[in-house]
Design brief:
This is Aspartyl-tRNA(Asn)/glutamyl-tRNA(Gln) amidotransferase subunit A. Belongs to the amidase family. It comes from Lysinibacillus parviboronicapiens. Residues 41-464 form the Amidase domain. It contains 17 helices and 15 strands. By secondary structure, it is an alpha+beta fold. The strands form four sheets. An eight-stranded mixed β-sheet has the order 6-8-7-14-15-11-9-10. Helix 6 (173-181) packs parallel to helix 7, helix 11 (322-344) crosses helix 12 and helix 11 packs antiparallel against helix 13 (365-385). Residues 1-5 and 10-16 have low confidence and may be disordered.
Amino acid sequence: MTRISLFATYLEVTILTTDLHLKSVEELAPLIEHKTLSPVELTKAILNFAEESQPKINSYMAFYHDEALAHAKEAEKEILNGQYRGMYHGIPMALKDNLYFKDKITTMSSKIHKDFVSQYDATVVEKLRDAGVIFTGKLSMHEYAWGITNNNPHYGPVRNPWDLDKIPGGSSGGSGAAVAAGASVASLGTDTAGSIRIPSSACGIVGLKPTHGRVSKYGCYPLAWSLDHIGPMTKTVKDAAGMLEIISGFDHRDPTCVDVATDNYVQQLSGNVKDLVIGVNEDYFFNRVDSDVDRAVRASIQSLVDQGARVEVVKIPSLQYAEWAELITSLSEAAAIHHSDLLKRPQDFGDDIRLLFELGELPSAVDYLQAQQVRRQIKQEFTQIFNQVDVMITPTLPVVASSIGDDFAELNGEKVDLIDNIIRFTGPSNLTGLPALSVPCGFKGNLPIGLQIIGPAFKEGRILNVGYAIEQTNPMKNRKPNIFANI
C-alpha cells in the first residue's frame, strides 16, 4: 500500500473516530499496529484536546508540541516499514514533572527548580522512548511531590475532570487528571505515601505502585528515598500491565533496584479468580470509611466471590502504628533532601510544604530508627498474612475527592483532616514496599471510588489479574467525566 493510500485510510478512520482521546492504549494499539490509525493523527488529536482542556484542568506544565509531532512521524515511518515495537509504539503521553528528560526543564512544579535542566533521561523515560512512546509534555504535581491535593501555589491547582471544583488528588494530580480527561493516553506517577493511587482513585483511573525495587528510580527527583516508587497511571488494567512490562527491570544506576526477573504481565490477565483467597482487614482498612465507599468496595469483593473467590478476615496488629512510622520516615528523609534550600531560601517554598520540611527537622535519630523497627514488624506481619491469603483488598481512600482549598474531607457527615485520612490506606504499602493497585469500583454521586489490591512482593501479575476481573464487571458503567461535554 502506498503512503498516499495509507493516509487516505488514516483520514477515513480519523473522521469516523472523533473520540480518540477517550480511548485506552489497548484500544489504540491494534489500530496503529494494523496501520488503520496514524500515530501522527493520534498525536494531533491528543495534543489538540490537551491544549483545549488546559484552561479547565491545568494538568500540563509544558507542551512538547512540535517535537511530539516529529517523533510521531518517525513512529509512523517505522510502522509502515514493518518495524512495530509493541503495544506502546506510537502512543502519545505526558509524564509527571519530576522525571528527568535530557536537555528539558524539569521543575518538580516548584519555584526553586523552575529552570532546572537535566543532562540525561530518567531510566523510565529511556525505556518508554525505546518502546516508541511519543512524549507530549510534562504534567503538574504537588510541589516536590510532598502533598495530596495538587493545589500548587506557583502554577495553580489541577482540577478533577469529574468535578472542576474538586481536587484530583496528589501528588501525581496532573497525571491523574490528564489520563482521566483524555489529555494524555497514559502516564507515569510517583508514589511515596500513595501519590499514584490517591489521584487514580480520585480521578477514576487505574494506578499501580509496583514492588519497591521493581522499577528504577534513576532520574526521578526524590521525596523520600526508601519510600519512593514509580508506576503506571492508565485508563485500563491491561494498559498498566503493558507499561509495567516496559519500565520494570534491574538498573545498576539505582541502588534500590532489585535484580529479579520480570514477567509478561499482559498474558497473566485471564480474569480467572476461582479459588482466589482475599484477605480483608476490618480493624484498620475498613475502619472509619465513608459508607458509599464501603458499599462499593464490598460489592466488588462480592463480585469476585461470585466468580469463585473466597474471603478470609485477617489481623495485622502493627498497622495501628503505620501512620506514625510513615510520617516519621517521610518527614525525616524529605527534610534531609531539602535541608540546604530550607536554610538558604525558605520563602521560595509553598507554605504547606515549607511547614512539612520544617517539621522534618524535628524527629531525632531515635525516632527515625524506631520507625524503621515498626516498619520491619509491619512487613513481617504482611509476609505472614500472605501465607494465608493471595491478595488483600481495601478501599484506596476512605473518602472521595474534597473541594479545592479545603483542608478537610467529609466522612459520613463529619469534617475530618484531609491529609491524615487520605493516606491512611495507601501508606502501609510504601512502608512494606509491597505492590498495590488502585482500580475504579463505582461512584459517590459523580465522584469516583477506588479499590486497592495489595499483593506479595513481586507478584504484580497477581494483583493486576484481580484488578482485571473487577474491571470486567464494569463498575464504572462506561461513565466519562463531564468535561467532555463542556469543551
